[in-house]
Amino acid sequence: xxxxxxxxxxxxxxxxxxxxxxxxxxxxxxxxxxxxxxxxxxxxxxxxxxxxxxxxxxxxxxxxxxxxxxxxxxxxxxxxxxxxxxxxxxxxxxxxxxxxxxxxxxxxxxxxxxxxxxxxxxxxxxxxxxxxxxxxxxxxxxxxxxxxxxxxxxxxxxxxxxxxxxxxxxxxxxxxxxxxxxxxxxxxxxxxxxxxxxxxxxxxxxxxxxxxxxxxxxxxxxxxxxxxxxxxxxxxxxxxxxxxxxxxxxxxxxxxxxxxxxxxxxxxxxxxxxxxxxxxxxxxxxxxxxxxxxxxxxxxxxxxxxxxxxxxxxxxxxxxxxxxxxxxxxxxxxxxxxxxxxxxxxxxxxxxxxxxxxxxxxxxxxxxxxxxxxxxxxxxxxxxxxxxxxxxxxxxxxxxxxxxxxxxxxxxxxxxxxxxxxxxxxxxxxxxxxxxxxx
Length: 439
Known about the structure:
Strands 17-14-16-15-19-20-18-21 form an eight-stranded antiparallel beta sheet, sandwiched between helices. A five-stranded antiparallel beta sheet has the order 7-8-12-10-11. It has a three-stranded antiparallel beta sheet with strand order 1-2-3, with no helix packed on it. Helix 7 (246-270) runs antiparallel to helix 8 and helix 10 runs antiparallel to helix 11. It is 33% helix and 25% strand. The model has no long low-confidence stretch (mean pLDDT 92). It has 14 helices and 21 strands. By secondary structure, the chain is α+β, with helices and mostly antiparallel strands. Strand 7 and strand 8 (86-90) form a beta hairpin. The protein has helices at 32-44, 95-104, 120-125, 163-169, 201-206, 208-214, 246-270, 275-285, 295-299, 319-333, 375-387, 402-408, 412-422, 431-437, and strands at residues 6-8, 11-13, 20-21, 25-27, 49-51, 67-69, 77-81, 86-90, 107-108, 142-148, 154-158, 178-185, 187-188, 191-200, 217-222, 228-237, 289-293, 307-315, 341-346, 361-369, 391-392.
């Protein structure tokens, strides 16, 4: 099954299937010059412009009835600079291709999220992240970027060149221009040892600060309707490489995490009353395992079961309280939740609208199987997250607006002022940006 968004009969749909748009026209530029020309032409025709990646956002951040820029021809590695330890890559390059090329060159990103289907620009523009004690989101690893702005000019940004734009455009939401290339910091390829093991919900929360402090990358999944979690610690390793065996990998990652999980979701959707029993079985299905491999093979995993997701960043110190409130809400609500809740962390960063901007953060992600009503669960979860000044992931379901964001982002006004300067006519506007950034 394709992991990218689809475009049939002129209608664009996202991966989660919950957003559709009918653009007036779709353009796939083969160069920065062609993209700049498409932007200028759209402005002449009075049409708004949005660039789209693989459609992995669950919000309508990329939807437009104007010109939809598709990035499939803007791919590939422009330059690897071994002195500066950077790689410059075209904006439409999928993360999985970047990871494969870097590994072949003996290089790696420092940290990444848990899926790698997205384009580099789509992933960074929405704030995609993994989990890390010291290492932050993919956008925090950006050292430079190239942007086509509303007047069709090409702007180079870095800490030295247009630093105010650089501060914001690393997670620019598509509001400041269209990213055409990104320069990432890289490092020599290294090994990670992953240790996955079940742990009770109460224990993981009681020991969370210690687990966070002792591991470079710590995350866990809580299975609603149970007191069980599955934890994962990733730490750098001297080796040797000991990847998951092919059969074991197929059984755990394909059969259990995708195949059986998919069937369990179908059963749960058809008979919600069966979900707590399924959750008890699911939460005990994955056994402890340890393996050592190159970073992207440890950080990322296949996600073939389609879902809809909401994720909020809360202050890291508020994680345990927030999760206990979430568990109490599920236990007392009569809701039937068949998808695990994912918990990760990130250190504070200096990106204007990063969910971890200026504060150490913990991420709590709630999911529902595609086609299952999710509003009641997400609404109740969102109420808990916002009570802790949570910041929603820009590419995942939420109901917040500019008024809320101006309260939880100290530098929100800095971003909107920059947008006024770079896109005064709102060429890159759509309904989503109107809501989250204000008109």
